[in-house]
Amino acid sequence: MAAMTLDKIRSSRKRRGYLEGHMLIAMPGMTDPRFARAVIYLCAHSKDGAMGLVVNQRARRVKFPDLLVQLEVIDEHEAIRLPKRAGGMQVLKGGPVETQRGFVLHSSDYHADDTTMPIDRDVSLTATLDILRAIASDSGPYQAILALGYAGWSPGQLEEEIQQNGWLSCEADNDLLFGEDLESKYARALRKIGIDPAMLVNSAGHA
After folding, report:
1. pTM surpassing 0.85?
2. Which residue range(s) make up the domain with 190?
3. What is the CATH number of the domain that holds 165?
4. What's the total number of domains in the chain?
5. Bridge partners of 40?
6. Residues contacting 98, CB < 8 A, separation 6+
7. What would the pLDDT profile of 159-196 be if each residue is shown by its tens digit?
8. Are the C-beta atoms of 170 and 162 separated by less than 8 Å?
């Protein structure tokens, strides 16, 4: 996995193509345990590499209200009075790169100039504290997840992993991105491309 800055992501998006805006689904033979049964939303994918967020792995022992207090977005008293949607927001393990950095993947009804990166018509990415403040005040996006860290690939690396049957791919949808049932996302992503998880074998081809 390779590091990729947000500026690099923006640069790569100018040459749109590949699987940007799609989901990667780990094959059963995935050799990296960090990505076993992972479902990853690709925020950027071009000849310069790829960047994505794992959307089905919960960040254990990390609660969104506690994180807001830790980042001094709110104080402890405000944490008790958070809007219901903000209080229940999921915090995920986005990937093994820059695990102390947060990325908010969200619906496109929220946009901050210079800090929000539209990925497609319905989904955007923001990586600043401003969106956390907006969520805490109930003025943020309708749908959002916070991912700590991300997955990154150097030029040609993801393509090689796909050719080696490391990943399948499918189109993204709101439930796979923002649904609360993380445990079923892997099976649902496979079924989306017509694959029964029980019948999948390591030697299967890629989509």
Report:
1. yes
2. 6-197
3. 3.40.1740.10
4. 1
5. 24, 54
6. 3, 149, 150
7. 999 999 899 999 999 999 999 999 999 999 999 999 88
8. no
